[in-house]
Amino acid sequence: MQEKHAWNERLDLGHDALDREHHLQIALVSGLADAIERGRPRMARRLLEQLTGYSKEHFAGEELLMEAGGYRLLPAHRQEHQAILAEIQEIQYLFDRAEYDLAAPMALDLLTGLGSHIAASDRRFAEHAEQAPAATVSAAATASDPDEGIVLA
Known about the structure:
By secondary structure, the chain is mainly alpha-helical. It has helices spanning 16-37, 41-68, 74-96, 100-131, and strands spanning 135-137, 150-152. 69% of the residues lie in helices and 4% in strands.
């Protein structure tokens, strides 16, 4: 697999908490695509499970921050999240049927789409959050560290 999926500067939002979460999300999708292409179905299945759970938690936390900050583009952003989760479910569907030849390019498409979402939609939110003192993030609001999260100003 070529390194077309590596983290790059266009994905850096300058927001430590979101950048950490996005970095992990990109790594999970990259690992998934790589495991499928290398014919490692057990590894791919584990990565797919992690990606599904992590993405749901990440999106829920991000949407909560948007709601708390009065982000007016929340409904559209939420639809993008739902579309990404639907793509992940489609990959799971194909993977469960051992249709790896279809799942692999979908994983690469997911990687591209997620990168675009971060670089455009999440960047708009990060810029809004910088200017809106109503809600800020002190640290990543992830399932792995529930003690970190939202700090309301």
